[in-house]
Amino acid sequence: MVYKAGIIAAITELKDRTGSSSIAIKKHMQANLPADKKWLNGMFLNALKKAVADGDLVQIKSSYKLSPDYKKKAAAALKPKKAAPKKKAAPKKKKAAPKKKSAPKK
Fold it and tell me: What DSSP assignment string belongs to 50-102?
């Protein structure tokens, strides 16, 4: 589990209007942590700081929210891209078969 993805998932699932505290995010991530993974608090804190520096999260006092720019990127990524309409190949015109000349009557 990548910490940044886990942080973003935790914030979206907690749905706090004023933002989620780092403690709440940490508890949510630890509850969803696979059994074979070890919790690294330093990695979590660095990922949190880096997400704020990158502009993916906004820090309000001691809470974190998704930035409006990140929400726009996420919404754009979810929309299926319209495929360019393929031009239909023009149907090939069949050449008119030449009419067979009837044999002259004798």
Answer: HHHHHTSEEEETTEEEE-HHHHHHHHHHHSPPPPPPPPPPPPPPPPPPPPPPP
